Each structure stands twice: as structure tokens, then as C-alpha cells.
Amino acid sequence: ELRTPLTTVRMAADLLHDARADFDPVTARSAELLQGELDRFEGLLTDLLEISRFDAGAAVLALDDVDLRSVARSVADSTAPLATQRGTRVTVSVPDVPCYAEADVRRVDRIVRNLMVNAINYGEGRDVEVTVATGKDAVALTVRDHGVGLKRGEEMLVFNRFWRADPARARTRGGTGLGLSIAVEDTTLHGGRLDACGAPGKGSMFRLTLPRRAGSRLGESPLALEVAEPVAPVTVGGPYARFPGSRGHTG
To answer: 46 and 75, same structural domain?
Structure first.
């Protein structure tokens, strides 16, 4: 019901935005602000609808054989404009062997995207390192930034809905405050784990670990989770997943 009036407002806003060169400076700037706020609202609405699906138990997996290396590279490419804007260099390190997991490629892409965007936004323009690895029973990806980091106790809050380490940054960093919460839900749906650790001024690290086969017991992660002088890492996610769907090959 929210999308119908929003679509009408979006059409009008697009017309104003496209014609802003003909307006006086104040009106033109207002058209730009309207466009930006509509983008934020649409993003928030999309995230809220996704959260409602998780809460209703309606989210399921469409399974494929997904190579985590391909996902990492693809997300790094698509977030490159944001990284450039923030003055951040993103490096992706992957092994020569495939890192397959039986997973929902759309959801895995979203997890990795949320982790990378978070690292870029809070990395203070410093390097962000993405690493992928595979083990006997699990595949993993870590995203390491060297930005503001996490204060003691914040590792317990970072996955909470709408929580922000610094609310004052919300306007400049954008986002809805739901990205990491959705990443947790997507991870749990796969029977995986999402870990976090960090330290003030030392940056933070997030680690995604997924079972190689859907429904199998999640073993030890093939990647370590550590930051210099870290606070205790926190793990979220669990061994239970809903995974009816198709199988194919992606990556």
C-alpha cells in the first residue's frame, strides 16, 4: 500500500529533477534534495519489507552452487564508485581453487554488499581488505577496515536493527540502519555465522561463514577473525535454515 503513492511521488520528483536546470538555484536545489530523500525512503521501505518477511518466517532460499570468489569480485566492482567517493581502496584476495557453497546467490550477494558498504562508509578513507577462503565443510569471507572501529560493547549492538555507532554520521553516510540486521537474517537462513570484532581506532572485521552444503553442520571457519587489540568477537546466526528451492550453478 505504501508503494502506490510512493510511485506517484517518484514520477513527479523525477520530472522536477530532470527539469531543474530551468529553475532558479533554490528551487533546483530543492528538487535535488527531494530526489535524494526519496531514494533514502525507498531504500528504507525495501529493507523494512525484507525484515517483515523474515519476521513472518516467509523467507526461503533459492539454492545454487555459488562461488564466493565471484560474489566478492562482483560486489567490489559494483561498490567501486562509493569507494572512490570515500577515497578508499578495496582489495579482494581469493584462492586459486573455487569456493563453492550451496546457497542463494541473491542473498549472499546482499550479505557481502552490506559488509563492504559498511566497511567503506566507516573506514575513514583507509584500505578495505576482502578475503575469501574455503575449507572442508565451510567457505568464508572477511571484510576488514581500518577506520573508527568498535568500542567495547558495541560488538554486541552492531547487528541490532537501526543501531548506529555514531548517529551523527547517519546523514553523511546514508543507509537505513538495517543493512547488517538483514545480513544476519540472510546468514541465519543459510545456517551460517556472521562474526564481528574490532577496536577503537584499529578498525573492525566482519566474517561470514557458510556451510558448503545446505543443511549440513557448520564446521570451523577457514578464516581467522582478529583485529589488533580486539574486543571479544561476537557471533550471530545459527545452524537452522529454510532452503526449499532450485539448484543450479552460479559463479
So the answer is: no
Whole-number Å distance between alpha carbons of 199 and 209: 21
Query: CB of 34 within 8 A of CB of 17?
Result: yes
Number of separate domains in the chain: 2
Helix or strand holding residue 133 (H, E) = strand 128-134
Domain span holding position 34:
3-55
Per-residue pLDDT tens, the chain, 251 aa: give them: 777 888 889 899 999 999 999 999 999 999 999 988 888 788 778 778 878 887 788 788 899 999 999 999 999 999 999 999 999 999 999 999 999 999 999 999 999 999 999 999 999 999 999 999 999 999 999 999 999 888 877 777 788 776 665 554 444 455 567 889 889 999 999 999 999 988 888 899 999 999 999 989 898 999 998 875 444 444 555 543 333 333 343 44
